[in-house]
């Protein structure tokens, strides 16, 4: 009988579900890393919230583990790459705690506007500090929402109900969705200049890290309030401290910190600073939702092989699995390629299946492709949430099938439209190996590798030599080299599989080569 470990404080509903479905379950919150490593080999399933951190060492010791379930949204406590490499499915519950977290952000906004925690402390200390607190009325003030996804859009709706004006910055928010929500879509600079209060609701990615930097904070209105109930690291904590000390920021309320648990943070003790210990999702209702959902998902997978809300593998039924799996993996990799060369949001995505995959259930294949294409912006996107997220953002999805395939037995093609022009890639499974066989209509034959340097250039003599010398001078080994071109002297592409991450200055030098039009380091 499969055995599950609940390694964080989850609602008791989760253990009940495991037992009712005939699984063995141990509930051991608060284990040290060493204790977890000692026992993890006994378990088929692991259920966590955010305190337990199944990192690469834990995963290496998890000899029987098949699934890690996160009762919540963010999986930054889980080493998803290590889990994927070991064939362990990682799943989350993308919607279960969104309302509760949005309510916490609104509570923090009020607490900041009226300095409720400090007023409470003074009152209960017998000071009756009536003169010390002059608050800010929220009605008619402008709330700037950075990241208008599940939680951000609920916060926006609540703020509109409070008669605030709402401006939102989110590259995936369409004008139509913004209009439906009743918010004004703006660029970040406009949001910074206009907002009386700013609230953050993005995941932590390379693009959002320090999105409220010292420089950005300087561009905000004097007296601005800052609320962060998303992830530590979205805001430069030292810059917020300086802003609170100088009075430029009138109040800040944070639920999340760069280092958690936050025991000694630079913000602690700053004037008008309010902290909660990552309580955004901490309501009975939300915890019951996410515990029930994750227990059902883990039990389904261990007992029937059905996968839902997986972050690292397509959702497919046990019967379909053997035929669909290789195409789903190819579709997701091609999506990731297209999403990375989209360089931000895209307005349309087209997915074409030719030959064998056109005869299969293409739904999970499309979902895999879309999840891949969205992943550069949404780290937590999964096969179930991807189509939903695409729809909510007004991105047009077109799926086409063609029963034969002129050149290959099988082909998957993905096109994304960015600022009115299409970027495309196609791939095929050739002798069991997933390959990139076309980029921008140019034929090539490249295997996927963890790091691929993608160069779009003009086919002129000297380019390949200069590129090779630049990589060699930087000590970067070339593992594979694939070229495609339209015709002699015309547009060309190079896909260079390299053995290491490529430093930014080397990328800049390659970009400066006279034959080069575009360079991107792709990771898979
Ligand atoms: N405090 C808590 O306890 C708690 C609870 C739940 C979720 N969270 C966190 O809240 C965050 C939001 O969760 P969600 O469910 O709303 O996620 P979501 O994926 O639904 O929404 C995130 C939004 O951020 C946008 N975005 C991505 N990159 C951006 C960028 N560079 N600039 C501006 N916008 C960008 C996306 O387009 C998307 O609309 C996540 O980090 C999640 O982990 C925290
Ligand atoms: O489990 C928690 O308390 C935090 C959850 C939250 O950070 C999430 O990403 O879902």
Automatic annotation (TrEMBL):
Where the record annotates domain ACT, the positions are 452-514
Q: Which residues form the D-isomer specific 2-hydroxyacid dehydrogenase NAD-binding domain?
A: 106-280
Protein's pathway: Amino-acid biosynthesis; L-serine biosynthesis; L-serine from 3-phospho-D-glycerate: step 1/3
Which keywords appear in this protein's UniProt record, sorted alphabetically? Answer: Amino-acid biosynthesis, NAD, Oxidoreductase, Serine biosynthesis
What is its EC class?
Answer: oxidoreductase
Q: Where in this chain does the record put each D-isomer specific 2-hydroxyacid dehydrogenase catalytic domain?
A: 4-312
Give the protein family.
Answer: Belongs to the D-isomer specific 2-hydroxyacid dehydrogenase family.
What name goes with this protein?
D-3-phosphoglycerate dehydrogenase
């Amino acid at each position: 009988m499969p055995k599950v470990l609940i390694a964080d404080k989850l609602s008791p509903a989760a253990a009940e579900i495991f037992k009712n479905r005939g699984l063995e379950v141990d509930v051991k919150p608060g284990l040290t890393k060493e204790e977890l490593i000692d026992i993890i080999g006994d378990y088929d399933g692991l259920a966590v919230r955010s305190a337990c951190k199944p990192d690469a060492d834990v995963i290496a010791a998890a000899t029987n583990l098949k699934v890690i379930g996160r009762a919540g949204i963010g999986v930054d406590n889980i080493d998803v790459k290590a889990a994927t490499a070991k064939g362990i499915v990682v799943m989350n519950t993308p919607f279960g705690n969104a309302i509760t977290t949005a309510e916490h952000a609104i509570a923090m906004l009020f607490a900041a506007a009226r300095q409720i925690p400090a007023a409470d402390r003074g009152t209960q200390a017998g000071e009756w500090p009536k003169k010390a607190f002059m608050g800010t009325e929220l009605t008619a003030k402008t709330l700037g929402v950075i990241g208008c996804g599940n939680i951000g859009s609920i916060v926006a709706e609540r703020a509109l109900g409070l008669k605030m004006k709402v401006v939102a910055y989110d590259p995936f928010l369409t004008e139509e969705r913004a209009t439906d929500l009743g918010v004004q879509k703006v660029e970040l600079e406009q949001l910074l200049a206009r907002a009386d209060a700013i609230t953050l609701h993005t995941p932590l990615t390379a693009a959002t890290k320090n999105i409220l930097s010292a420089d950005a904070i300087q561009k905000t209105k004097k007296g601005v309030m800052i609320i962060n109930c998303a992830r530590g690291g979205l805001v430069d904590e030292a810059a917020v401290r300086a802003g609170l000390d100088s009075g430029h920021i009138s109040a800040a309320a944070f639920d999340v910190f760069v280092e958690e648990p936050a025991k000694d943070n630079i913000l602690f003790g700053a004037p008008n600073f309010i902290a909660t210990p990552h309580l955004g999702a901490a309501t009975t209702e939300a915890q019951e939702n996410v515990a029930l959902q994750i227990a059902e998902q883990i039990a389904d997978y261990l007992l029937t092989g059905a996968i839902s809300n997986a972050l690292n593998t397509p959702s497919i039924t046990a019967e379909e699995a053997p035929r669909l799996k290789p195409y789903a993996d190819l579709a997701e990799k091609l999506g990731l390629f297209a999403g990375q060369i989209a360089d931000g949001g895209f307005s349309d995505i087209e997915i074409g299946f030719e030959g064998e995959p056109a005869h299969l259930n293409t739904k999970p294949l499309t979902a895999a492709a879309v999840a891949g294409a969205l992943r550069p912006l949404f780290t937590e996107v999964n096969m179930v949430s991807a189509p939903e997220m695409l729809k909510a953002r007004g991105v047009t999805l077109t799926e086409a099938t063609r029963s034969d395939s002129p050149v290959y037995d099988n082909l998957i093609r993905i096109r994304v439209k960015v600022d009115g022009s299409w970027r495309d890639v196609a791939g095929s499974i050739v002798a069991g190996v997933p390959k990139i066989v076309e980029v921008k209509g140019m034929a090539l034959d490249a295997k996927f590798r963890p790091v691929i340097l993608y160069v779009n250039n003009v086919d002129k003599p000297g380019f390949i030599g200069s590129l090779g010398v630049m990589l060699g001078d930087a000590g970067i080994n070339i593992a594979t080299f694939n070229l495609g071109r339209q015709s002699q002297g015309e547009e060309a592409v190079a896909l260079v599989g390299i053995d290491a991450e490529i430093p930014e200055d080397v990328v800049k030098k390659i970009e400066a080569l006279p034959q080069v039009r575009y360079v991107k380091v792709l990771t898979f």
